[in-house]
Amino acid sequence: MKNPFEYGGVVSGNAFCNREKEVADLLRAMENNEKLFVFSERRYGKTSLVRTALGKLPKKGYVCAYVDLWPTDSEATFVTAVAKAIAESMSTSVDKLLETARKFFGSLAPSVTMDEEGKPELTFGISKHARPGPALDEVLETPAKIAGKGEQNVVIVFDEFQQILEYGNDQVERKVRSVIQNHRKVGYIFLGSRKHLIEKMFMDRARPLYRAGGHYPLGPIAEEHWQPFVSKRFADAGKTIGKERIHDVCELTQGHPFYTQHLCHVLWELCEPKAEVTEKMIQTAVQVLLERENYAYTTLWESLTVPQKRFLKGLATDVAGVKVFAGEFVRRSGLRSASNVQRVVDVLLAKDIIDRDNGSFLITDRFFRLWLHSAQTR
Questions:
Q1: Range picked from 106-120, 128-142, 251-265 for highest mean pLDDT
Q2: Residue 23 domain-assigned?
């Protein structure tokens, strides 16, 4: 039987755990043509969530374009990514794909070529480092043109939206604001996995996208939803995991979707049919995971300064929500002053090693946190 716990990619169908409220909220936003910023830590399942929501929209009534901005690094690559996503969302064949691209993006000189696997791929005759100018306006205005025909609603999803901050200027950011604020029949979902950057984009008065839409922080999945999800998948394979053991898993992963699925994946492999997951088995599963990651974590650890190591050790072993700028934490961690802590925090945030969490901070990689904790108890 295939392992039912999936991680590391887009999760769908029976492998997707709950998020019923979040799916309903996103559906409502799409149907109401809202502009919504959805943000969280990395690996929280934002892409899986939005794809699940998109899958529930009636296909005949919607044009849904999913734009992955992670590979982009300039205005020109942004333009081609958006144009390609829109053309592919409206096409059912290679001929139709090229026809659609020429209709809406003729100035970009679209063509269809074969990739390394022999599959057709839409490309555009625009240099990666070109200043697209009018082409940027063209692709951003296209969703409204499609919606203006009145036949279909349009939803545009920008994944890893914070990537536009890497372009070297705020041209795209300013243009997105000026264009989409006039679109009444198009829904926009902006996904971001560098939470502090996304928050800055729409909460900082100096930024072009300040208050350009609603914000929707995505949190962990509550244990009450993990309990039936995990229990059923073990039971379907003739295996048993009790409520206390699922609670133990959720405590270790803090309800983070990626790490919970990953730990359960290993547990499912360790547990034989007709057997029950034990506390010892969970300890073994954690050890297996930490041994796999030991080289990467050791390399990361050795790249850090002494103050950064002290801060992370303190964060790994202290209670959730600890006030890291308070005198007690500063003293216990040997960081001398709150200003030293602030410098450490700024660097670790920039490196995505920690993230903000309800007035405090947490270590984003839950297994790295366990690795740090186990290193101090050995």
A1: 251-265
A2: yes
Q: From CA 69, how far away is CA 267, in angstroms rounded?
A: 35
Same domain, 129 and 200: yes
Confidence check: pLDDT of 142 > 50: yes
Residue 197 lies in domain:
19-217
Residue 256 lies in a domain: yes
Same domain for 168 and 34? yes
One domain, residues 65 and 180: yes
Q: Give tens-digit pLDDT for 197-220.
A: 787 888 888 888 888 889 899 989
Q: What is the pLDDT of residue 197?
A: 79
**What mean pLDDT do residues 133-149 have?**
92
Residues 29 and 175 reside in one and the same domain: yes
Q: Is the pTM for the entire model greater than 0.85? A: yes
Residue at a domain's end among 187, 217, 247: 217
Mean pLDDT of 149-165: 91
> Same domain for 54 and 163?
yes
Q: Is residue 169 part of a domain?
A: yes
Q: How far is CA 147 from CA 96, 100, 209, 220, in A?
A: 19, 15, 23, 35
